[in-house]
Amino acid sequence: MSIEQIPLGHAVFSMHVSQDETIPIGVVMWDEPNKWWKVRLVRDDETIAKLLPEHRRIVALLCEKLDLWAATREVPKALNCTGHGVFEPWDSRFWYTVHMVLRTNTRLSEPEPLELFRGESRRIHVSYLFDDLVLHLFDEPPCTIEPNQEEP
Fold it and tell me: How far is the CA of 149 from the CAs of 89, 123, 145, 146, 152, in angstroms?
């Protein structure tokens, strides 16, 4: 199986909270040329609708698994899923393998390319991704103008 390499990319972690509902719980971003990667999962002090205390334990377990897999550069069942074994966590093939392995309560979307604006910090970008895709902070425009009001 051939896996597309994405030098700068991201993916979204999600969790099944009921039979027919999935909610986002985190993001991962990587930058292969600079050998950089970052996972941002929901924290205990953050509120996400429909995320219950028992779900938070699963998030904590996922965090432990990801830390272990990144440290060892091995994802269980990787050979069965992708035909490959060891990848660095800043390589999109590592995250594609995680995508293939996480198939129960928690999942990872398929890796996608990501564009950074020139000079933009990757750390800030991970925060924006999390705020937008998980917390949905950017669903509404920052200012709403009523039809009978003029723009300032």
Answer: 50, 38, 6, 5, 9
10-residue mean pLDDT profile of the chain (152 residues): values are: 79 92 93 90 90 93 94 76 72 91 91 71 69 68 38 36
Q: Alpha-carbon distance 98 to 124, whole Å?
A: 24
Q: Residue 107 is encoded by which pair of tokens?
A: 């999942």
Q: What is the DSSP string of 77-116?
A: THHHHHS--B--TTSHHHHHHHHHH--SSEEEPPPEE--P
* φ, ψ of residue 13 in degrees (nearest 5): -85, 140
State residue 77's pLDDT score. 72
pTM score, whole prediction = 0.79
CA geometry: angle at 55 spanning 50 and 60, to 5°? 135
Here the tokens at position 49 are: 């609708």
